Amino acid sequence: MAADRMTERRRWVVVLVGAWSAFAVVAAVVAAHGWAPFAFEQTAIDWCTAHRPELARAVAMAVTSLGTGVVPYLLALAAGVLTALGTTGSPRRRWTTVRALLLPVVWLALGQLLRQGLMHAFGRPRPPVTDWAFTASGFAFPSGHAFTSALCAGLLALAVARTRPAATRAAVVGAVLFAGTIGLSRIYLGVHWPLDVLAGWLLAGGWLAAGAAGSSYLPECAKRSGATRSG
Question: CA nearest 43: which of 127, 169, 161?
Answer without folding.
Answer: 127
